[in-house]
Design a protein that fits this description.
The complex is a heterotrimer of chains A (273), B (269) and C (267). Chain B is an all-alpha fold. Chain B is 82% helix and 0% strand. Chain B has two domains: 48 residues; 198 residues, MetI-like fold. Chain C is globular. Classes of the chains: A mainly alpha (273), B mainly alpha (269), C alpha/beta (267).
Chain lengths: 273, 269, 267
């Protein structure tokens, strides 16, 4: 081993160095740690845990998993109608949602909408996004009854919340030069939209729509749990009747279909980009 | 001159060439067929569709004005919801990080662990939080434990996948340099990988916490704790005005969550 | 002392990138390795610390065979070999001090690495070396806030912190401007004699190779075709190594000669 020789001055020993802490201010640093610990303690202690019922959990889960395996596809007919309905809900709500998203996104884009219209558009989007689709589904079920109608209304709102928001952001980032060029040839508002704005956002819009179709397919499985139609209802019934092997079959199919649709939508988006 | 004129009339321009036109027509046709089939086959009682705006409006009328007499219970339930979201996000970190490590192609020890990591992430992501909640309520009974587990199991997939991608996108050069000093695998991870993925880590955790707040509000609808329990109760009793109060409380929580997350993001990133 | 015998590296069934290389480096000499891109300079250097796996052959460092080491033995051998890279390969988000201390990762425990509590001797050495190369005032600055030349100096200190038996430099100046690259080459030359360290430098710039190193090794297509003193590296040797195309950065030589006819080198 070559000892570290040096011709220059002798080495100073005993100098101090510590890694500079992530948060410089010690008050903030220790304060944050204290707050975190206090919060964790408080949260855990105030949460109601029914330990008796929980301790039944492990043997219970053994029974459930035992009953779930192997998955039963006997009631294939029910599976088929359930999925068919889910798919119909997803397809129709994506279509309706995407179509409605376009004018709403135009309203909600700061650069092409006048202020009051912009605020209205933004509000619509915020309202559409605030609630979990399950809550919206429950409300629609209460309003229009059980069945796929409630599901379609729910997912249309869900789609608008997502697609219109992203589309509006996309519109806000377009190259303004193209719009200026259209204005300079004397095109009116709509024509400027069609020639100057839409060509720029169309690829992204198609990508968003495919993504939303995929998303709605997943969500349609869930809104059925509260009665808005689709495979979710079938799943609820299976759980309710302790038909765990059927429930497992449904779950496997859901996972499988999600994977397939993810693959397809990814492929389509790549082709279009 | 005459030849020139003939040449002009032969010039045709169309926006799409033959092949593109065919693809477009086929796509439109398929979508039209899909639309017609879906509309005709779906199990909807069409008179109800036209009546829907009416029904929605009447429901809205029944909800107004909101009632605050059960506000205490509502506030506590909201607190419970926040606890569920925060605790599960916190606990998920400890599981999602190792899973992300083994599902990233550049850090996974071998093919089997890569496959295992990917399977865990895919199943976690494909099963919705509510469905996880159904499962855990069946196992552990109704209550917050089922809710926490449900949110955790769903978040593992989200955080694990995004962190895995962050790990795969790191610059390899610091890794090479650390290997050259003779450091062991763990130390290489510590010095070359962790510093590079820190910003992504914070962004992902903050985002997931925000999403989890939303998810936790509905867990109670299947019995897994939080404000959802009160919501379902009020709906069952047709106490629409209380329902409105709860909905307003949820909106406020969501807005508060968004404010906190954007403030955090500015600080940390 | 480094002894490479019959080193060969082949990727799959393709032609070998390194063919039957023999090289011997003694004591504290500074050896530069020149050659066109693709000649195998980088591959050979990386075979020494096994960042690239040799297909066959032997590499001995101070009598220890390196080629078949595995696991912790491999890591122990690597910590004896310091390496600096063309792209600096620093950890951008960490401070200069942490980057420098990371050279000791082969020596400290995981816990020490995690908490950054390195032994006092390492910290003293770090300060000492940083002052020697002139970056001590950057101790707690983030590495990505430094200029190119400063970053390479951090990398040099990191390598020296390993207390290496040999220093490998893979085109250390290719990403630096001419003045800074001279500073780095001069630094490597003085450090080599100060610390009695053998240094191997991959380099494009033949002028700098002549100026700062004691011995030039020329590679072409994976084989060594020149091995001698800089003063013997004449135009013929240059043509043999670079195959008639002008070597880049060759000052004072007309580089437009594509027919391969020799020209007088302007001394």
């Amino acid at each position: 081993m070559t000892p570290l020789k040096t011709a220059s001055a002798a080495m100073v020993v005993g100098r101090f160095w510590r890694k500079p802490p992530f948060i410089a201010n010690p008050w903030v640093r220790y304060g944050l740690m204290a707050v975190t610990l206090i919060y964790l303690y408080w949260a855990f202690s105030t949460l109601p845990f029914n330990w008796e019922r929980i301790s039944e959990g492990l043997p219970r889960s053994a029974r459930i998993f035992g009953g779930a395996f192997p998955p039963s596809f006997e009631r294939g007919g029910l599976l088929w109608t359930g999925f068919k309905e889910s798919f119909q809900i997803a397809f129709l709500s994506t279509l309706l949602g995407v179509v409605l998203s376009v004018p709403i996104a135009v309203m909600a884009a700061k650069n092409i909408a006048p202020k009051p219209v912009y605020l209205l558009g933004r509000t619509i989007i915020i309202v559409a996004r605030s609630f979990h689709p399950v809550i919206v589904a429950i409300l629609f079920v209460a309003a229009v009854g059980f069945g796929p109608l409630a599901g379609i209304l729910t997912l249309t709102l869900y789609s608008i919340g997502f697609v219109a928001k992203l589309l509006a952001e996309e519109i806000e980032e377009i190259d303004w030069g193209q719009v200026e060029a259209m204005r300079s040839v004397g095109a009116g508002y709509l024509k400027t939209l069609i020639y100057g704005v839409f060509p720029q956002v169309m690829p992204r819009q198609i990508g968003l729509s495919m993504y939303q179709l995929d998303s709605n397919l997943r969500a349609s499985a869930v809104v059925g749990i509260v009665g808005a139609g689709g495979i979710g209802g079938t799943l609820m019934n299976a759980f309710g009747r302790y038909d765990y092997d059927f429930a497992f079959a449904i779950l496997l199919m859901i996972i499988g279909i999600i994977l397939v649709s993810e693959g397809i939508s990814g492929w389509v988006r790549k082709k279009i980009w | 001159m005459v030849d020139h004129a003939i040449k002009l009339t032969d010039q045709v321009w169309s926006r799409y060439d033959r092949k593109e036109q065919r693809i477009r027509y086929v796509t439109y046709l398929v979508m039209l067929i899909g639309l017609v089939w879906a509309v005709s086959d779906i199990d909807i009682f069409w008179p109800w569709v036209w009546d829907a705006p009416n029904q929605i409006q009447s429901l809205g009328a029944r909800m107004w004005p909101p009632r605050f007499d059960t506000w205490d219970a509502i506030f506590n339930a909201m607190l419970e919801t926040v606890h569920i979201a925060t605790l599960s996000t916190f606990l998920t970190i400890f599981i999602a990080l190792p899973v992300a490590y083994i599902s990233a192609q550049n850090t996974t020890p071998n093919k089997a662990t890569l496959w295992l990591g990917r399977v865990i992430l895919v199943s976690s992501r494909s099963v919705n939080t509510i469905i996880w909640a159904l499962l855990f309520v069946a196992i552990f009974g109704p209550g917050v434990l089922a809710g926490i587990l449900a949110v955790m199991f769903r978040s593992i997939g989200f955080i694990g996948k995004l962190m895995g991608e962050a790990i795969e996108e790191i610059d390899r050069k610091p890794v090479e340099a650390m290997e050259a000093t003779g450091a062991s695998k763990m130390k290489i991870v510590l010095y070359a990988i962790v510093p590079q993925v820190m910003p992504a880590f914070f962004a992902i955790i903050i985002l997931r916490w925000d999403i989890n707040i939303r998810e936790s509000t509905v867990l109670g609808l299947v019995g897994a704790g939080g404000i959802g329990v009160l919501l379902q109760g009020s709906i069952d009793l047709f106490a629409w005005q209380t329902v409105l109060t709860i909905l307003l409380a949820i909106v406020m929580l969501v807005i508060l969550g968004e404010a906190i997350t954007s403030a955090l993001r500015k600080k940390v990133i | 002392m480094l002894e490479i015998t019959n080193l060969e590296k082949r990727y799959g069934k393709n032609e070998a990138v390194l063919k039957g290389l023999n090289l011997s480096v003694e004591g504290s000499s500074v050896v530069s390795i020149v050659g066109a891109s693709g000649a195998g300079k980088s591959t050979m250097l990386r075979c020494i610390n096994r960042l690239v796996e040799p297909t066959s052959g032997s590499i001995k460092l101070n009598g220890n065979e390196l080629v078949n080491l595995k696991g912790s033995e491999l890591r122990h051998s690597r910590r004896r070999i310091g390496m600096i890279f063309q792209g600096f390969n620093l950890i951008d988000r960490l401070t200069v001090m942490e980057n420098v201390l990371s050279g000791r990762l082969g020596y400290v425990s995981f816990f020490q690495a995690l908490t950054r509590r390195f032994p006092q001797a390492d910290i003293d050495r770090a300060f000492h070396l940083m002052e020697r190369v002139g970056i001590a005032h950057y101790v707690n600055k983030r590495a990505d806030q430094l200029s190119g030349g400063e970053r390479q100096r951090v990398a040099v200190v990191r390598a020296l912190m390993q207390e290496p038996e040999i220093l490998l430099a893979d085109e250390p100046t290719a990403s630096l401007d001419p003045k800074t690259s001279q500073q780095i080459m001069s630094l490597l030359q003085s450090l080599a004699s100060e610390m009695s360290l053998p240094v191997l430098i991959n380099i494009h710039n033949v002028t700098q190779a002549r100026m700062y190193t004691d011995r030039i090794v020329g590679m072409r297509h994976g084989q060594m075709i020149f091995d001698g003193a800089p003063k013997d590296f004449n135009q013929d040797a240059l043509d043999a190594v670079y195959g008639g195309i002008a070597s880049p950065d060759e000052d004072g030589v007309d580089s437009s000669d594509a027919t391969g006819e020799s020209q007088e080198v302007n001394a």
